[in-house]
Write a structure and sequence with these properties.
Layout (H helix, E strand, L loop, with lengths): L1 H29 L1 H5 L5 H7 L7 E2 L6 E7 L6 E4 L7 H4 L2 E2 L3 E2 L2 H4 L1 H4 L7 H9 L8 E4 L3 H11 L4 E6 L6 E7 L12 H13 L21 H10 L7 E3 L3 E3 L6 E3 L12 E3 H6 L3 H11 L1 H10 L28 H7 L9 H12 L4 E2 L4 E5 L5 E4 L4 E3 L4 H17 L13 E7 L7 E8 L6 E7 L11 H18 L1
Parallel strand pairs: 1-6
Antiparallel strand pairs: 1-2, 2-3, 4-5, 6-14, 7-8, 7-19, 9-12, 10-11, 13-16, 14-15, 17-18, 18-19
Helix pairs in contact: 8-17, 10-12, 10-13, 10-16, 12-14
Length: 489
């Protein structure tokens, strides 16, 4: 009897041991990642905020976009953004409640000192009893161009992106509205939640960048894609097209009109492709779209990155065009898509990539905003080299489009972008919206024959001019200011 009770007790203890063993292994192996990454895990937060997180700097290596400041609280370091909203679209934020975003997320392993390349530095710091230090992220952002772009855009809703066409480096990226990352980085969780709540309720969705994350109809700037498809498929700048006052769309009673109902070039019976781009003639580009067909138009857009996964460190919504199947039985949609309307959408980053491919001899580089990584003592750890995304157009098409875009600025719809002594190539866009207030666009690069900078601008709903806005009147002067600052110093 006694032996039986002892055996039962032993079995009970064995069962309890098995349960405890299984639970311990579950917590340490299977659920460890979930618990470690739970924002409510105070121990994890204390460990993370005990790291002297690395700086994020502009390309000059001096202008501070983000840094850590020692505190006397339980969290040893506070993340600080000295320029507030100016660089928010680049840095993102570092929050005890909502985690990391932007470069704070993309480069977290380096900033937090976790990257394998930082192991020697970490060992030295541990031996010397110093706090763990993160690496410095040096961006491609030109601090002066960022300020100029911000001032030129002012309070207008929209976005500006400036790229180096030869490397894909992002020289400036500004959006309105923006936000201040500092309240989101507070150590007071109540302050963080209130700030986030206010931003989510704010008009214009400030947490979503209009420079690279939101999408809008690109209007006539998309004619650069349509013209590329035309030139890549046998048409030439001198190819002529009928120039009626309006284009009757196939299988429809609808008419496609020019901006303002005008008859392009004073009613000339025909226009060349080059002339049609210079004066941004919808009727002719609608006809070009119909001649190309949906397959060739969509294929060309995809080569520029529309609906593709374009590598970039930051969140990026690539441009969008409906699939070829969406045009079946609705050939008139090809004409309206060819002028950047219908369901075609883009943002300044996407259109800057289109402009950059044209400027760079037909080769499109991957955009990137990180130039190099340095350890806490300034030693180079990693250098980001330029990478090719693809070649959407030939060198010949690039040269022909450049000449046509020069004509746009010299004698067409983009004369407001002219800079004495500097030849600018550009394309305007005035995209129709349901409100009747068009989005004003401009895509440009300079100097035209040796491009060093590409600038794409969108101002939503006409900015200050409302329904009277055009890309040439509203967006071109903003691009001009950025190009001037880049090339004239």
């Amino acid at each position: 009897m006694m032996d039986r009770q002892i055996r039962r007790l032993a079995l009970a203890f064995l069962a309890l041991f098995v349960v405890l063993f299984a639970q311990a292994n579950y917590l340490q192996v299977f659920a460890s990642s979930r618990y470690a990454n739970n924002p409510a895990n105070q121990r994890l937060l204390l460990q993370e905020y005990a790291v002297d997180r690395g700086d994020i700097l502009a390309r000059d290596g001096k202008t501070v976009l983000a840094r850590s400041r020692a505190t006397q609280g339980k969290f040893k370091y506070l993340r600080v953004y000295p320029n507030g909203p100016l660089y928010a679209d680049v840095t993102g934020y570092y929050s005890i409640v909502f985690g990391r975003y932007g470069l704070e997320a993309a480069e977290n392993d380096y900033l937090a000192g976790r990257a394998p390349e930082l192991l020697p530095q970490n060992l030295v710091d541990e031996i010397l009893g110093r706090p763990k230090r993160g690496a410095t992220v040096v961006t491609t952002i030109n601090a002066r161009l960022q300020q100029v772009a911000s001032r030129a855009l002012g309070s207008l809703p929209g976005g500006v992106v400036a790229l180096d066409p030869g490397t894909g480096e992002v020289l400036a990226m500004v959006a309105n509205p923006s936000y201040d990352p500092n309240p989101l980085a507070s150590h007071d969780a109540t302050v963080v939640r209130q700030a986030r709540r206010a931003l989510l309720r704010a008009p214009g969705k400030p947490l979503l960048s209009r420079a690279s994350q939101e999408l809008f109809p690109p209007g006539s700037t998309f004619k650069l894609v349509t013209a590329s498809a035309a030139l890549e498929n046998g048409m030439r700048p001198s190819t002529t097209f009928p120039n009626p006052p309006a284009l009757r769309l196939p299988n429809s009673t609808a008419l496609l009109h020019n901006f303002g109902g005008e008859h392009c070039l004073g009613g000339a019976p025909t226009l060349t492709l080059a002339q049609a781009l210079t004066v941004s003639c919808n009727v002719v580009f609608g006809e070009i779209g119909l001649r190309l067909g949906a397959a060739k138009l969509v294929e060309q857009a995809e080569k520029f990155g529309f609906d593709q996964n374009v590598p970039y460190e930051l969140p990026f919504a690539e441009g969008s065009i409906p699939p070829v199947s969406a045009f079946a039985g609705a050939s008139s949609f090809v004409a309206t898509s060819a002028i950047g309307q219908q369901d075609v959408q883009a943002n300044p980053m996407q259109m800057a990539l289109v402009g950059a491919a044209i400027a760079n001899g037909g080769v499109e580089m991957e955009p990137h905003v990180v130039k190099e990584i340095r350890d806490a003592d300034g030693r180079l750890v990693k250098e980001i080299k330029p990478s090719v995304f693809g070649q959407p157009i030939s060198a010949r098409t690039s040269a022909e489009l450049t000449a046509m875009m020069v004509s746009v600025v010299n004698a067409g719809t983009g004369t407001a972008a002219q800079i004495p002594g500097i030849q600018v190539a550009g394309k305007t866009g005035t995209a129709e919206t349901p409100s009747g207030k068009p989005h004003a666009w401009f895509v440009s690069f300079a100097p035209a024959q040796n491009p060093r900078i590409v600038v794409a601008v969108v101002v939503l709903n006409g900015g200050d001019l409302g329904s009277d806005a055009t890309g040439g009147a509203v967006a071109a002067p903003i691009a001009k200011a950025v190009i001037q600052a880049a090339l004239r110093g």
